[in-house]
Amino acid sequence: MHLMNTIPPRSGTAFILKQGQRLKVTDIEGEQVADLICYNQHDTAEYLSSGRTIDYAETIFLTKGHSFYSNRSNIMFTIEEDTAGRHDFLLTPCSAEMFRIIYGHTDPHQGCFGNLCKALEPFGIKPDEIPTTFNIFMHVTVNGDSGKVSVLPPLSKAGDYIRNVE
């Protein structure tokens, strides 16, 4: 089965991907970011874990060949193809609170976190149950001496994609 879903800016979507099905996420315009989170369909208390994934991969630069683990140490998916090569699994989804606290916005938009809340609500997933997401195409660097995190423009170009297996 081949489905194409273009997600409009400042919105989100949620769907069921069964074992054996593949997901391809494409950066249509270049320098875009997509926040991805996964849950076990039969027990949403099991979810994609940045901590476990980074621990087991022994790197924060996750790309082709890396498996992504749940909070219960089960593989949720493996990246089979990755034309961009740079993604983030350190930072939480942006939110209205983040825009207020970090940038001083007085009337911020809901951010990716709000988009995820709306998209996951029909599946019974509450805001407090949304962990750190895999931020596809997001370019984050960490200074090796100070630990300072910097969010830089994505390196992805129009047409770059990742595809999973599992």
Short summary:
With 166 residues, the protein is an alpha+beta fold. The protein contains 3 helices and 10 strands, in the order E-E-E-E-H-E-E-H-H-E-E-E-E.
Key terms for this structure?
10 strands; globular; alpha+beta; two-stranded antiparallel ribbon; about 170 residues
Mind explaining what this structure looks like?
The protein is of the alpha+beta class and about 170 residues long. The protein has helices at about 50-55, 95-105, 110-120, and strands spanning about 25, 35, 40, 45, 65-70, 75-80, 135, 140, 150, 160-165. The strands form 4 sheets. It has a 4-stranded antiparallel β-sheet. The protein has a two-stranded antiparallel ribbon with strand order 2-7.
- Count up the helices: 3
- The overall pLDDT, averaged over residues, is 94
Q: Largest beta sheet: what is the strand line-up?
A: 1-10-6-5
Largest sheet: 4 strands, antiparallel
Radius of gyration: 16 Å
Overall 3D shape: globular
Task: Please specify the SSE layout and strand pairing.
Layout: E1 24-26, E2 34-36, E3 39-40, E4 43-47, H1 50-57, E5 67-69, E6 75-82, H2 96-103, H3 111-120, E7 134-136, E8 139-142, E9 149-152, E10 161-165
Antiparallel strand pairs: 1-10, 2-7, 3-4, 5-6, 6-10, 8-9
